[in-house]
Amino acid sequence: MVDANRDTTPSLDGRPAGGEAPRIYPDEHSIQNADLLTRLRSRRITPRLLLAYAAALGLLLFAAPWAPSYALGCVVVLSGLALRIWTFGHLRKNQNVITTGPYAHTRNPAYVGSALVMTGLFIAAGNPYDYRGLAIWMAGIVALYVFFKHYMPRKYRREYGKLRKLFGPAVDEHAAHVPDFFPRLTPWRSGDTQRFSWACVRANHEWVWPLAGILALIIIGLG
């Protein structure tokens, strides 16, 4: 018999407060359990997404790397990829408010990592000595402007609203201590003890980004 007085509200670490076992991540019915092709088919193709793909293809086709900037770009890209892996090693989507790992520094570490990867690729693909290289850097500045001015505000409105419906005051408590994007230097100590997990990295399918990022750097380097 179920005890009607027992508190089964999920805690911040994803465990029900009544002491039950942690929920399995991802849920057995989640799209995350599907194969890569099925998950790609489930994505909605939008004009913004097509434009992003076209920009990425153009970057690779017209890359004009210069050794010093290419090396710097590689460092920035690899830093962004490492941050994304760290992020998805803590992320359990729709189970709890994540406040550990990179989430103790910024509320959106995956987007910070993505911004670093994008910035690094533009740095690696351009150079200051010809029009093509300078055009790539200018395109990178435009891309970052669109990312911060249009993409991120839209993401904030949609995702924060969803999180508040799921987790209520815990979202606002996190927001009161941790910035939206640019990380704080010292981690916020929320009391959560959740640790990094390679199983979460696999469950979140984060292997695709590192492979794509490294492949892009190789193609740019051969340009």
Question: Care to give the gist of this entry?
Answer:
With 223 residues, the chain is an all-alpha fold.
Taking pLDDT < 50 over at least 5 consecutive residues as the criterion, the unreliable ranges are 1-22
The portion of residues forming beta strands comes to: under 5%
Count of strand segments: 0
Overall geometry comes to: elongated
Q: What is the number of helical segments per DSSP (H or I, 4+ residues)?
A: 8
Please summarize the sheet with the most strands: none
Radius of gyration: 20 Å
What distance lies between the first and last C-alpha atoms, to the nearest angstrom?
Answer: 67 Å
Q: Estimate the helix proportion, in percent.
A: 55-70%
Written as H for each helix and E for each strand, in order along the chain, the element string is HHHHHHHH
Q: Please tell me the overall pLDDT.
A: 84
Supply the helix-strand structural class: mainly alpha
What does this structure look like?
Mean pLDDT is 84; it is low at 1-22. This protein has eight helices and no strands. Helix 4 (109-125) runs parallel beside helix 8. It has helices at residues 36-42, 47-61, 67-88, 109-125, 131-167, 169-177, 198-203, 208-221. With 223 residues, it is mostly helical. It starts with 35 loop residues before the first helix and ends with a helix. 57% of the residues lie in helices and 0% in strands.
Layout of strands and helices, then pairs:
Elements: H1 36-42, H2 47-61, H3 67-88, H4 109-125, H5 131-167, H6 169-177, H7 198-203, H8 208-221
Helix pairs in contact: 3-4, 3-8, 4-5, 4-8, 5-6
What tags apply to this protein structure?
disordered N terminus, mainly alpha, 0% strand, 223 residues
